[in-house]
Each structure stands twice: as C-alpha cells, then as structure tokens.
Amino acid sequence: GGGSSFGVKSVLNGTVNIGMVSRDLKDKEVSSLGQHQTYLVGKDAVAIASSAKNPMAATVKQLSSDAVARLFAGETAHYSELVKKLPNREIVLLTRDAGAGSTEVLQEVLMKDKQISPKALQLPSQGALLQKLKNNTQAIGYISSGLVSQSDGALKSYALDGVSPSNENVLNGTYKLARPLNLLVKDVPDAYAKAFVDYVLSDGQVVVDSLGFVPAKR
C-alpha cells in the first residue's frame, strides 16, 4: 500500500474493500469510519538500514537512539560526525511521508520533539525507498526489516541500542521500532472480504512469516 493514511482514505471513499494500515488508527479516523473492523495480521520491525556498500556498513554494527534521532533531524550531516574514522562525506537521508506507519513510529519512539530534516528525500512507498537505498551508497533510511531480509544482502540493517531488528526481538518487546500490520474493513465485511481476512489469519500467516514479518498468530 502507498502509506497508512492512503489505506484509511481508500477504505473511507470506497476505492478498496480492504485497506492496509501499518499503525494504529487515530481518533479522528475512528470517528470518520464509523462502524469498522481492524485485524492485526502481523508486526514489522522498522530497521535503520543502508546499502551494504555504504561507508558505514563494514565497521558499524549498531547506533544509539540518540544518534539516530540526531541523524534524521539533520544535526549529524557527515559520516565522520557519526563515527570519527568514517569519511567526511555527506549523509543522504531517505524517509517516508509523515502519514506512513514507519515514520510515525520513528517520530514517536526516537525523534520525540525533534523534526525530520527538511533536506531528507521523501519516498512515496517502501518499494521506492528500497530501490533508492540499494542504489545510493551514501544514503541511510528506515525501512521494513522484512524488505532488508529479502534484499539478498544488498542492504544492511543496524542494531538500535545494541538490539537487532529481528522478529524475535519484536515479539519479546526489546526492539523499540516496531509497528502493527493491520487490515481495515468499513462496516461489516462482506463474504469476499471475510474470506480473505480469514485466509490471511490462517494459512496466510505462513506467507507473512516467509516475507520476513512477525505473524500475528503463532
């Protein structure tokens, strides 16, 4: 889907029968939707990641929450400021739009009162961010850990405060940057929507797991 806000709007205006929303609904969205159902189908770690050819990739294993917040705020602008032994090259920041679940969890958990740098390049989808991150060796972004695990080693993710963005660490609550993966249906789901939701919550959980996400039903 093209971001969480898009998923909610598409359900509201009837463009889709089932929306995909990677965050909890806001109060105003709940009141706009009226009767609706949300179904938790999995959870996803939001990983701080770069190309495996990034200057940082060979030597840096983990970043602190504070370092990541300063990085995305644009306060740390060069690799040498992040880690002294790295080259004095400018860091390219890749982000999603403000309504995306990954941005919301980053803002709430790490950025807090800091704002994402206006210099950051905003990508319209996780897929677009993935391609940009693979191709720009100077870039750092935040992206679904499922996509990192599917990248065949093209991307590298970094532990946060020493905790890796693994499914196990999402489940046990030690990895802080995690988001819910929800399906959203307005009113009462019809037979087709209900059949799809039932599939995703039963046999489809194997697919959720195979794509590198944490299944809701284990």
Would you give an account of this structure?
35% of the residues lie in helices and 24% in strands. It is of the alpha/beta class and 218 residues long. The chain is globular, with a radius of gyration of 18 Å. The mean pLDDT is 93.
Record the SSE blueprint:
Layout: H1 4-12, E1 19-21, H2 27-33, E2 36-51, E3 62-63, H3 65-72, H4 79-82, E4 92-96, H5 101-111, E5 121-123, H6 126-135, E6 139-144, H7 145-149, E7 155-160, H8 167-171, E8 178-186, H9 191-200, H10 204-210, E9 214-215
Parallel strand pairs: 3-7, 4-5, 4-6
Antiparallel strand pairs: 1-8, 2-6, 2-7, 2-8, 2-9
List keywords for this structure.
218 residues, 24% strand, 9 strands
Strand content: 15-25%
Quick one: how many beta strands? 9
Overall helicity? 25-40%
Shape: globular
Alpha-carbon distance between the termini? 24 Å
Low-confidence regions: none
**Alpha carbon gyration radius:** 18 Å
- Tell me about the largest β-sheet: 9 strands, mixed
H/E order of the elements? HEHEEHHEHEHEHEHEHHE
Work out the helix count.
10
Could you write a compact summary of the structure shown?
The chain is of the alpha/beta class.
